[in-house]
Amino acid sequence: MRRSKSSDVSFTLTELAAQIGGTVEGDGQVMIRSAAPIETAEPDQISFVANEKYTRFIETTKAGALILAPAVVCDRLPVIRHANPYYAFALVLDLLYPDDVRSVQGTHKSAVVDPNAEIDSSAAIGPLCHISAGAIIGRGSRLLSSVSVGENVQIGKDCLLYPGVKIMKDCRIGDRVILHAGVVIGSDGFGFAESDKGLKKIKQVGWVEIADDVEIGANTTVDRGAIGPTRIGKGTKIDNLVQIAHNVEIGAHCIIVSQVGISGSTKIGNGVILAGQVGLVGHIEIGDGVRVGAKSGVHKSLPPGKTVFGYPAREIMESKRIEAALPRLPDLLKRVRKIEKKLGDDSAD
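Given the sequence above, the corresponding structure tokens read:
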């Protein structure tokens, strides 16, 4: 059975607990070299339980140690107790699998860098990258390979751009931003004016602004504004295959899951969650803390704190009642037809 990739580092359980703010129960000298799912973990690996359905594996796992919430019972293995096991496991992964900063160093000989670009001496430009005139790349940022950076683009400190990322002219990227393979920032928004001669393209003269600590998944596209910026707020996390249209504004610390489509000029508040395949029409406002269930279609503005679901999206309990009623419709229609027939026969008498 294939093991989870092992790093070159190892920790005792006590050392890990100290780093993540947890408390050890049992043998704190157990040596941990990597992490694995609880079902397949081995004696030098650590795992966790954050979902109740996985507690059944506690009695059978071969893991060397587990990360558990304070109330979860475990008498057979060393444990790190933590109020938030999932978050604690994320911290442990950072310790066991440090970033490989050796992967890119300096500017690769195959990179094409305009002499009017400004690249910090600590930044790294990988093979086949193209850096245009006026671009600025900040301290410690890494462009792995085949990354295209347009004219006057600004990239902040400690960013990580995976292969095939394309950032078009005039866009601005904050600090510690991660852009996964195939991300396109600043492509033209979809704007056309109808006329008797057909469709006239509306020139897209805006840009994109991405704040600090944003992460954007593979093959996601963020269009430049038609006029002015498209904005993504601090700490927002965006999954693969998301489409964000021109002049959209997304607040801080939002979660946007795969295959979401956000139409132009929509404004999204802070802490919003859009589940997979959600679609939003243009020119609406989504308040802070709104949650939208998977495959929902949002056709109007939503006040802060709402949880909605369905197509069209409705308050979630109303949508659940509608969903529960739908399977009964065929029988209900039969009953209605019988009643109508009986009423018709009675009226004939």
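The chain is about 15% helix and 30% strand. Try to locate this feature in the token string yourself.
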